[in-house]
């Protein structure tokens, strides 16, 4: 048994391209997610500018369709999902007392695949037009008959690739949470963020394959001339709606559950109280996940499934209010009688509670099928889902970022700017979306690029646009805060909030690459808090100091993703008529697809043939670092 | 974490070498999770097929198209190959590397036989029956479902083939053992999916 | 570890008892019989369609369960998580199939 395998340590850019360290992958996810979030935000501002006044002609109807499609798709798949994955990567191995994730290679592969899928999707803007069939890409609008540019091809192929990355990321976290927990950390001692991430990953596992199939069917229709949704040849567009929403509804719970987890971490920390009703929180999370798979047809009430189906899905949808209500009350009772500190993280967490309740209430309204016939495709729906996704998820993500920033980067974000961020964002958010409820009730249709004057829409739309810009100011303040903080020296304490409850606060900020010098022994829920209350300064180790095995860095995940990216481009343009005969030759004969697949499968083969022995950090090195710190 | 990659068959290889290391156990568990996702993937493909199975657009129908003897032969081949991969894993647990390789080689040959039959079948449909991807919604759904399964078989054949090579070169170790075990799981899963394909696509197609 | 109540054909030097091939051959024969029943019913023809459909589904599910349990070892100890996640996958697949059967055409 050889001990020290020599391993090539990379620096600079190569370090980031080859890293398999979950903490660095977290930062990569945050950067990429932030970038796409910026794209989606600019698209949102353009939408709001177009709607600032009646009969505006800032953008054309076609561009408007592209903007709303790309705004929705980008925000959901490329904006908030990666930021969720950033938090999961940064925090979960630390919270469960693990040195690493179960599959570091797969973790890196998941990130790069997501990134290249996102890049492919956004290339559409400069390669002949973005997708324009809405983020749901309903057929027949999205078939080649009605959507003649390559826009929807960018959508199907780009999302397929990005979705693959998300799926394998989800599998990695499931396995990590199942097998890598520290001694003593039973499932019912896991922090809530870990629990919600676990359930979210399980939902990713079961929901994403459905959209994989849906996207395959749509691309076969568009590229190979298949007839899944081609009514004249026997296809059925309703099938697409079902497949999309069998994925799509769980997807929105995939988004919100991690936010629930963040709130369940932030509120107890800053209330200096343990989370009220921990086991009911776990139970509610599982129940929400289960019900999340049972309610997809409430997006299709007006499709005409009939009164029985509509009634069933109505009731199932309303049921979700029960576990969600349990969570809301648990958060309130956690704060009740606590010594609440209004840090920026906690402001976002507390702001989350009423905002999310408002989104939930309109959700129950929409769940009523007869009423939904009135609400459907109006701004009421737009207001509803922005209340849950922005007022819920994005508030949660801001709370999580402010909360864990010191753990990720070793520097606390500026609290004053953080509070300004919150107030700008929160006020801007309510200005933007609260009025949209009324616009919807007054009959303003969503996804239409303009509206006529004198329908009482004018003022409310103006208010909404002003609000959107206030939100943008909030986001810019956050960015400014990040850059300003990055310029400051590192060196915050292990537990900068001083009331940290979970294991991540027991180790340095940012943690060393092996996370825990010795794997800690967990003696209860809120493991670190428990030790602090017992008068201990550190966790009790569960193992003697020993040599630590680490996985080797590798460029293969990056190369594999490049291969998939090339194959995806080749597939999209396989039947394109190029002016250039060389281009036609390589694309029309599938040569580009083959090159891409050879790169990907070749890298896979290399990974299989050459064992990764990893490398070791010896106890002496640990001691040295201990002295330095 | 153990790094027992240097151990060989002659050393103290444990009874179930695929579960000897944390990496090995993670791999098996992770693969089970992946199969959970694959179930949804195939479930959705089956759903699509079931929704569109009668949409023949004046093209060939399932009843006219399918020949049950071919399907029965394909079924038998795949079922036997699933059994041989069980034997391969049993040989691995007994640390009989030669028997392990032999059973895997038989599995791969059977897999190739299945693929050959499927290619022949598709070829007949396209040329003799004028039943292509674009013929009808039924044809699209048929080729996509059965083709996805066929692609899985093809991937499995390549994968197990590469593992046989690795077993010759590296021998049976705690690194190669989980790969063999996981590939056997994959192969069984493909067989289970086929059980539903011959029941739902072929037999049900004949029933009408 | 191997199950004690099953046949053991050999015990290797380090004391582990190995399950024999007999159990798996039995599963194989069982699978063949189920497959044969399904094929025979359809090939013979003339059987009530609704009955045939139910029979086919039951035969397929039985065969899948046996192979998952024995060949893929889901029935062995330490497979709680795989069972949970396979059931989850099967459940979502089932909802998709029910949907396709009842809510796509009406």
TrEMBL record, chain A:
Give the pathway listed in the UniProt entry for this protein. Answer: Energy metabolism; oxidative phosphorylation
Record's PROSITE patterns? COX1, COX1_CUB
Q: Where are the transmembrane segments?
A: 26-47, 67-92, 104-126, 154-180, 192-218, 238-263, 275-296, 308-333, 345-367, 379-405, 417-439, 459-480, 555-574, 586-606
InterPro entries this protein is in? Cyt_c_oxase-like_su1_dom, Cyt_c_oxase-like_su1_sf, Cyt_C_Oxase_1, Cyt_c_Oxase_su1_BS, Cyt_c_oxidase_su1_bac
Subcellular location(s): the record lists: Cell membrane; Membrane
> What is the recorded membrane topology of this protein?
Multi-pass membrane protein
Q: Which residues form the Cytochrome oxidase subunit I profile domain?
A: 10-523
Q: Identify the Gene3D superfamilies for this entry.
A: 1.10.287.70, Cytochrome c oxidase-like, subunit I domain
- Give the E.C. number(s): 7.1.1.9
Any idea which UniProt keywords this protein has?
Answer: Cell membrane, Copper, Electron transport, Heme, Iron, Membrane, Metal-binding, Respiratory chain, Translocase, Transmembrane, Transmembrane helix, Transport
Q: What is this protein's function per UniProt?
A: Cytochrome c oxidase is the component of the respiratory chain that catalyzes the reduction of oxygen to water. Subunits 1-3 form the functional core of the enzyme complex. CO I is the catalytic subunit of the enzyme. Electrons originating in cytochrome c are transferred via the copper A center of subunit 2 and heme A of subunit 1 to the bimetallic center formed by heme A3 and copper B.
What does the sequence similarity comment in the record state about its family?
Belongs to the heme-copper respiratory oxidase family.
Q: Which PANTHER family match?
A: CYTOCHROME C OXIDASE SUBUNIT 1
What is the name of this protein? Cytochrome c oxidase subunit 1
In its UniProt entry, the species of origin is given as Paenibacillus favisporus
């Amino acid at each position: 048994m050889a001990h020290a395998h020599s391993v090539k340590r990379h620096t600079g850019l190569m370090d980031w391209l080859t890293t398999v360290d979950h903490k660095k992958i977290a930062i990569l996810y945050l950067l990429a997610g932030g970038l796409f979030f910026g794209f989606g935000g600019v698209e949102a501002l353009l939408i709001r500018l177009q709607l600032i006044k009646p009969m505006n002609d800032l953008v054309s109807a076609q561009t408007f369709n592209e903007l709303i499609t790309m705004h929705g798709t980008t925000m959901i798949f490329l904006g908030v999902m990666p930021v969720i994955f950033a938090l999961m990567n940064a925090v979960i191995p630390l919270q469960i007392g693990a040195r690493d994730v179960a599959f570091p290679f797969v973790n890196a592969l998941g990130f790069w695949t997501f990134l290249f899928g996102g890049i492919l999707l956004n290339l559409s803007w400069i390669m002949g037009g973005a997708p324009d069939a809405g983020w749901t890409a309903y057929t027949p609008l999205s078939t080649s008959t009605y959507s003649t540019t390559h826009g929807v091809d960018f959508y199907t192929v780009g999302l397929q690739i990005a979705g693959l990355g998300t799926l394998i990321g989800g599998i990695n976290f499931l396995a990590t949470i199942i097998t890598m927990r520290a001694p003593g950390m039973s499932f019912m001692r896991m922090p809530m963020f870990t629990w919600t991430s676990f359930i979210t990953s399980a939902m990713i596992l079961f929901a994403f394959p459905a959209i994989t199939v849906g996207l395959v069917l749509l691309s076969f229709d568009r590229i190979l001339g298949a007839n899944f949704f081609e009514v004249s040849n026997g296809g059925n567009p309703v099938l697409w709606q079902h497949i999309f929403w069998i994925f799509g509804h769980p997807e929105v719970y995939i988004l919100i559950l991690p936010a629930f987890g963040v709130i369940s971490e932030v509120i107890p920390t800053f209330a200096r109280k343990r989370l009220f009703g921990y086991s009911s929180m776990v139970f509610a999370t599982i129940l929400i996940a289960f019900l999340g798979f049972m309610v997809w047809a409430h997006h299709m009430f007006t499709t005409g499934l009939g009164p029985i189906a509509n009634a069933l899905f109505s009731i199932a949808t309303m049921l979700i209010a029960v576990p969600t209500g349990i969570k809301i009350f648990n958060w309130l009772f956690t704060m009740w009688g606590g010594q609440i500190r209004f840090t920026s993280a906690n402001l976002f967490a507390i702001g989350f509670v009423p905002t999310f309740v408002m989104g939930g209430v309109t959700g129950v309204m929409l769940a009523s099928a007869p009423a939904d016939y009135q609400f459907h495709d109006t701004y009421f729906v737009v207001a509803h889902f922005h209340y849950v996704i922005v007022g819920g998820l994005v508030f949660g993500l801001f709370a999580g970022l402010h909360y864990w920033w010191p753990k990720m980067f070793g520097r606390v974000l500026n609290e004053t700017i953080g509070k300004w961020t919150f107030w700008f964002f929160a006020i801007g958010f309510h200005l933007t979306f609260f009025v949209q409820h009324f616009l919807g009730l007054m009959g303003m249709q969503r996804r239409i690029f303009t509206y006529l004057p004198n329908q009482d829409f004018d003022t409310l739309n103006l208010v909404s646009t002003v609000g959107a810009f206030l939100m943008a100011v909030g986001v810019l303040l956050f960015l400014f805060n990040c850059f300003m903080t990055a310029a400051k020296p590192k060196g915050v304490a292990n537990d900068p909030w001083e009331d940290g409850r979970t294991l991540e606060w027991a180790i340095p900020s940012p943690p060393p690459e092996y996370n825990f010098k010795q794997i800690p022994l967990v003696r209860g829920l809120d493991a670190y808090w428990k030790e602090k209350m017992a008068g201990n300064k550190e966790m009790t180790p569960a193992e003697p100091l020993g040599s630590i095995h680490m996985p080797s860095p590798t460029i293969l995940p990056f190369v594999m993703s490049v291969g998939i990216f090339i194959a995806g481009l080749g597939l999209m343009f396989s039947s394109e008529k190029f002016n250039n005969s060389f281009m036609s030759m390589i694309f029309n004969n599938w040569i580009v697809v083959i090159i891409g697949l050879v790169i990907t499968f070749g890298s896979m083969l290399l990974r299989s043939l050459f064992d990764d022995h990893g490398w070791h950090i010896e106890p002496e090195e640990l001691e040295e670092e201990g002295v330095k710190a | 974490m153990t790094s027992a990659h240097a151990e060989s068959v002659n050393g103290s290889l444990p009874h179930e070498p695929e579960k000897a290391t944390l990496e090995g156990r993670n791999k098996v568990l992770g693969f089970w999770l992946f199969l959970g996702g694959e179930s949804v993937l195939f479930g959705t493909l089956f759903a699509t097929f079931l929704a569109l199975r009668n949409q023949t657009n004046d093209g060939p129908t399932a009843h006219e198209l399918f020949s049950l003897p071919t399907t029965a032969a394909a079924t038998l081949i795949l079922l036997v190959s699933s059994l041989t991969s069980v034997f391969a894993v049993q040989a691995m647990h007994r640390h009989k590397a030669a028997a392990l390789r032999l059973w895997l080689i038989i599995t791969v040959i059977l897999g190739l036989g299945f693929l050959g039959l499927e290619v022949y079948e598709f070829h007949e449909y396209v040329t003799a029956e004028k039943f292509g991807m674009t013929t009808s919604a039924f044809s699209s759904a048929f080729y996509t479902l059965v083709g996805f399964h066929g692609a899985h078989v093809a991937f499995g054949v390549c994968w197990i083939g590469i593992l046989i090579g690795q077993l010759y070169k590296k021998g049976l170790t705690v690194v190669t053992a989980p790969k063999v075990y996981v590939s056997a799981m994959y192969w069984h899963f493909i067989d289970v999916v086929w059980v539903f394909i011959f029941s739902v696509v072929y037999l049900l197609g004949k029933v009408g | 570890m191997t199950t004690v109540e099953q046949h053991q054909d050999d015990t290797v030097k380090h004391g582990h008892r190995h399950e024999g091939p007999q159990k798996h051959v039995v599963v194989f024969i069982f699978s063949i019989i189920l497959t044969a029943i399904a094929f025979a019913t359809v090939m013979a023809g003339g059987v009530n369609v609704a009955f045939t459909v139910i029979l086919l589904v039951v035969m397929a599910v039985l065969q899948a369960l046996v192979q998952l349990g024995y060949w893929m070892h889901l029935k062995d100890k330490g497979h709680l998580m795989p069972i949970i996640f396979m059931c989850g996958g099967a459940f979502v697949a089932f909802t998709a199939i029910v949907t396709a059967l009842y809510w796509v055409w009406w």
